Amino acid sequence: MTIGIVGLGAVGARLSRHLGSDLLLHDIREDQSIALAARLGVDSVDLASIASRADLVVLATAPPQLEVAAMMLAAGVGVVTTSDDPDDCAALLSLDVDARRHEATIIVGATMAPGLSGLLAASLATRLDMVDEVHVAAHGTGGPDCARQHHLALRGMADGWHDGEWIRRPAGSGRELCWFPEPIGGRDSYRAAMADPLLLHRARPDLQRISARMSATRRDRLTARLPMLSPPHREGGIGALRVEVRGARGGAREAVIAGVAERAASVAAAVAAAVATAIADGWWRPEHGAVVLGQADCPTERLLAEITRRGLRLQEYVGAEHFA
Fold first, then answer.
1. Residue 240 banded pLDDT, cuts 50, 70, 90
2. CATH T-level assignment (fold) for domain 3-111+268-302
3. Is the pLDDT of residue 3 over 70?
4. Which residues face 115 on adjacent strands?
5. What separation in angstroms does the CA of 258 have from each of 5, 10, 116?
6. What is the dihedral of CA 46, 32, 148, 275, to 10 degrees?
7. What is the b/e burial string over 85-96, where b = at least 16 CB atoms within 10 angstroms of the residue's CB?
């Protein structure tokens, strides 16, 4: 299967090294695309060539990814998206009808959060007899586009699912101390405009409560409503993800927690690569239409195994602020 990668920043460049040699690369920075393609021994092409030659395309660009996704679906090409913008993810889900009409599949949100968050939530849910809550927290950023999205997520309104209805609260409110895997540890985290509640609700509409938070400093919160004061770093430091699933087991109320601590771009690339590999190798044949990670027919455990095979160490919370 020929796989196209659109966007060769911090995530896309890593992704290209995960996926072997049958690749088509594209980036708006043509010189960067040509240079990386030459190093990998693959082709650097335009979008039209990807639409006509690829069987599957991974979008690793900054949001919005809607326009390119629609173009690829219209050509009958399967799409894996890495957008973490809630409005963009909602728009990508709306391509469900188009994807079905063109007998194609679009995987929405194959990154750290959303993406790995959905897989961890689905895996942890199997530990309990009944599940009614999922709470996600994220720390850190990947490349510049991720840093800009982090900045935007702390302003405006944050969506959450609460007792059967959507609620909107100011982003940057609701401080909670969340413990992430080391070396991150405890960080103050706040409501944020993240795509996880939307996609988790699509995967598990039976949940009663879903929330998403992002770690932030006082400066992050104070400057969120201003333009970014300095250009974002080319690559962020160590990021982290924490997923908490609450429910009941054996008649008692329980919570199970898992997460990861790694460079956010590395996590995103590993998740997108695992999904693309699963489809390319034929061991996951998702139905036509819009699909999210962690839904009932998703091969959750095999995808998590593929992600860990690519170098990520998933950790489970064992108490007293420790992951193992």
1. very high
2. Rossmann fold (3.40.50)
3. yes
4. 111
5. 30, 25, 11
6. 60
7. bbebbbbbbebb
| Cα-Cα end-to-end distance for the chain | 37
- Displacement of CA 247 from its chain's centroid (Å): 24
Same fold, 3-111+268-302 and 116-264+313-323: no
Rg (CA), the chain: 19
Sign of dihedral through CA atoms 253, 216, 109, 159?
positive
Burial class (CB in 10 A: 0-12, 13-18, 19+), 288: middle
- CA–CA dist 129, 116 (Å, integer): 22
What is the structure's pLDDT at 147?
63
User: Among 160, 154, 250, which residue's Cα sits nearest to residue 212?
Assistant: 160
Q: Where are the domains of the chain?
A: 3-111+268-302, 116-264+313-323
CATH code of the domain occupying 116-264+313-323: 3.30.360.10
Note whether 56 and 276 are within 8 A (CB).
yes
Q: Are strands 78-81 and 56-59 parallel, antiparallel or unpaired?
A: parallel
Confidence tier at 21 by pLDDT (50, 70, 90): confident
Virtual CA dihedral for 243, 142, 263, 116, nearest 10 degrees? 30
Q: pLDDT tens digit string along 193-218?
A: 999 999 999 999 999 999 999 998 77
Contact 84, 293 (CB under 8 A): no
pLDDT tens digits, 34-75: 999 999 999 999 999 999 999 999 999 999 999 999 999 999
Q: Give the three-class secondary structure for 310.
A: coil
Q: Where are the beta strands (DSSP E) in the chain?
A: 3-6, 23-26, 43-44, 56-59, 78-81, 105-108, 130-139, 157-162, 165-170, 176-180, 185-191, 209-215, 238-249, 252-263, 289-292, 314-319, 322-323
159-179 burial, b at 16+ Cβ within 10 Å, e below that, comes to: bbbeeeeeeeeebbeeeeebb
